[in-house]
Amino acid sequence: MILWFTIVQLAVAVSAGLFCLILGFAGRRPSDWSVGALALVELLLIVQVVMAIVSPFVGNPALGDPLEYGVYLVAAVLLPIGGALWALLERSRWSTVIMGVVALSLAVMIWRMQVIWMTPVGL
User: Which end of the chain is more exposed for a tag (fewer CB within 10 A), N or C?
Assistant: First the structure.
């Protein structure tokens, strides 16, 4: 993983999470803005999938366990899809809060993936 891209992903995920939490606690139902914020996080995760596939071929292999990294990456890609589907099916203020929690959870997962990528196996 590339550190600057991880930092961008973290900033977007935390911003989207706080944005959705504020909207949800203010009583707003899911809207184009809240779902769009989560979609932006998903878009960056898809770019990360491409980067994770290409990186080892250009000299940036994962130092940590590739299986653990892959499981985190697949789960991270599926999480915003599930959160957005839930929000669109339930259309309540709590759905917006759930999207915020999903985005903040993704921020933690993104940082963990960075740690897995950069830490050699066994440390």
Answer: C
CATH of 3-118, one of 1.10.3470, 1.25.40, 2.40.128, 1.20.120: 1.20.120
Distance CA 2, CA 121 (A): 18
Q: How much is the CA Rg of the chain, to the nearest whole Å?
A: 15
Dist CA 121 CA 99 (whole Å)? 33
User: Residue 31: which region, alpha, beta or left (left: phi > 0; alpha: psi -120 to 50)?
Assistant: beta
- Residue ranges per structural domain of the chain: 3-118
Residue 15 to residue 88: CA distance in whole angstroms: 21
C-alpha to C-alpha distance for 102 and 55, rounded to whole angstroms: 27
| Residue 17: HSE in the Cβ half-sphere, 13 Å Cα cutoff | 15
